[in-house]
Amino acid sequence: MLPRTPLLTPRLCLRPYEPTDAPEFFALLNGDRARFNASFPDRLQAVQAPADATTALAAFADDWSTGRFYVFGMWHRVSAIYLGDICIMPQHKGQAEIGYYLAAGAEGQGYAREALAAVVRFGFEALGSQRLLIRCYTDNAKGQAVARAAGFVPELQPKRPLWFRNSDELGNIRRFVLARPQAVE
What residue stretches are annotated with the N-acetyltransferase domain (predicted)? Predict the structure, then answer.
């Protein structure tokens, strides 16, 4: 099990959630529910009331202990304001997927880029990932800009069987990947 150690950047503290974070976690999700619905429907479905936030944060702690999912809350280091969250989920063949969201008032200040850089390091160093993936809706220009700024590059859509029923939805999602840097000898 990886230690539940915060990741510090010049302006941010990214740390695993604690039970006492539930009110802030719920308030952010509930306040931006309409904006987050398309990208984070599972999270919103799971957190519909304050008590659900407590349950979700306990599940995140369980996921951390099993290595299934690593979720970091994002706080401003000086003001201690909760800004959003960023997570990384190990997948198969050395790949891990990253997702993130910010409160509307925190957007446009470089926080997502700063947090993503820290989680990229965590993914390659602590998790040993060989490849990182970010998926964004095609109309999410901000999310794509954050991925590109961190060095992620667009990837062609994977080929799917013709019978795959959600093929139209796949056309609405862009995939961005970043390979583990090779050591210089």
Answer: 12-169
Tell me if 145 sits within 8 A of 100, measured CB to CB: no
The rounded percent of the chain whose pLDDT value lies above 90 is: 84
Bridge partners of 85, per DSSP, are: 73, 101
Contact between 1 and 65 under an 8 Å Cβ cutoff? The reply is yes
Q: Tell me the sheet residues that pair with 99.
A: 87
Predicted confidence (pLDDT) per residue in 6-57, tens digit: 999 999 999 999 999 999 999 999 999 999 988 899 999 999 999 999 999 9
Spatial contact of 75 and 81, defined as CB atoms under 8 Å apart = yes
How far is residue 136's CA from residue 147's CA, in Å, rounded to a whole number?
A: 9
Q: Flag whether the pTM goes above 0.85.
A: yes
Q: Is 162 left (phi over 0), alpha (psi -120 to 50) or beta?
A: alpha
Query: If we measure between CA atoms, which residue out of 29, 131, 110, 10 comes closest to residue 71?
Result: 29
CA nearest neighbour of 85 among 142, 14, 32, 19: 14
Q: Which of 141, 145, 150, 138 has its CA nearest to residue 178?
A: 150
